[in-house]
Amino acid sequence: MARRKKIYEGKAKILYEGPEPGTIVQYFKDDATAFNAEKRDVIEGKGVLNNRLSEYFMTGLGSIGVPTHFLRRLNMREQLVRACEIIPLEVIVRNYAAGTMSKRLGIEEGTQLPRPVVEYCYKDDSLGDPLVTEEHIAAFNWATQQDMDDILSLALRVNDFLSGVMYGVGIKLVDFKIEIGRVYDGDFQRLVVADEISPDSCRLWDIETGQKLDKDVFRRDLGSLTDAYTEVAKRLGVMPKGATAMAKPTLIN
Predict the structure, then answer these.
(1) Is residue 41 domain-shared with residue 122, that is, in the same domain?
(2) What is the CATH number of the domain that holds 179?
(3) CA dist 95 to 44, 111, 118, 174, 203, Å?
(4) Lateral strand order in the sheet of 78-82
(5) Which residues sit opposite 181 in a β-bridge?
(6) Short-list 18, 15, 23, CA closest to 1
(7) What is the C-alpha radius of gyration for the chain, rounded to an integer number of angstroms?
(8) pLDDT tens track for 189-210
(9) Are residues 125 and 152 in the same domain?
(10) How far apart are alpha carbons 10 and 109 in whole angstroms?
(11) In whole angstroms, what is the distance from residue 113 CA to residue 115 CA?
(12) Are residues 80 and 94 in the same domain?
């Protein structure tokens, strides 16, 4: 393959110029990071799993009319996505208290919230992605009020979809984060779900046992991250049920 122009490299992905105008190739790395990259490792096969799982979720969202940047998978580690202008916010939806919410508010982890709580963090690694309010977002012109209404609607639709899919395979969707991008068609703008949806960006607990099947396995040294992600892939049918966790997972095409 001809050398491609790298646009951006983050903690878990590399973005390259796409083969067609308005497209980007998103490459999933095996790097695992936590605590704003203070903890690092390379987990062989992680990028393959996240690529396939993100494809599964993005395709599912598209099938119910939720717009995403996803176009198609190119190979085991890469997917073609629409180029979009990323709004500098992480949009977090919480169904149960966990992580930073439990620490901030003194709520025991696993406590079901009265309703889904949507939070926003300003995307800036050097600041630790601080929690912000809609007042901050409006004041600094990161998004308009119409954008915020649309972002909230998208986040809750994603939550409904992911919660149902996960419940069907015995997994509790504790929380997740997404990013939102702007796509322009001439003068017309629309918002789409961008970046990725994978166990890197969700908290997933087994309903029966409470076993963690997400990046908390790495954050808290709870075992093999590959095993956890492989279990999610097997339950969703992305990986054969009889397969064992491998360094380089064999996934269904």
Answers:
(1) no
(2) 3.30.470.20
(3) 31, 9, 9, 5, 10
(4) 6-9, 13-17, 23-28, 78-82, 70-73
(5) 86, 192
(6) 18
(7) 18
(8) 999 999 999 999 999 999 999 9
(9) yes
(10) 29
(11) 5
(12) no
End-to-end CA distance of the chain: 21
Which positions ≥6 away from 83 have C-beta within 8 Å? 18, 22, 23, 24
How many domains, in total, are found in the chain? 2
Mark whether 121 and 166 lie in a shared domain. yes
Same domain, yes or no, for 91 and 75?
A: no
User: pLDDT, tens digit, for every residue of 68-115?
Assistant: 999 999 999 999 999 999 999 999 999 999 999 999 999 999 999 999
Whether 90 and 140 map to the same domain: the answer is yes
Range of the domain at 14: 6-84+225-236
Predicted structure pTM score = 0.92
- What type of residue is 55? E
Q: Taking all residues of the chain, what is their mean pLDDT, rounded to a whole number? A: 93
- How far is the CA of 23 from the CAs of 20, 50, 54, 71, in angstroms? 6, 20, 17, 9
Q: What is the DSSP letter of 212?
A: B
Write the DSSP assignment of 107-157 as a string of letters: PPTTPEEEEEEEEEEE--GGGT--EE-HHHHHHTTSS-HHHHHHHHHHHHH
Using CA atoms, how far apart are residues 195 and 166, in angstroms rounded to an integer?
20
**Residue 14, number of CB atoms within 10 A of its CB:** 18
- Are residues 75 and 39 part of one domain? yes
Phi, psi of 213 (to 5 degrees): -125, 40
Question: Is there a domain that residue 244 lies in?
Answer: no
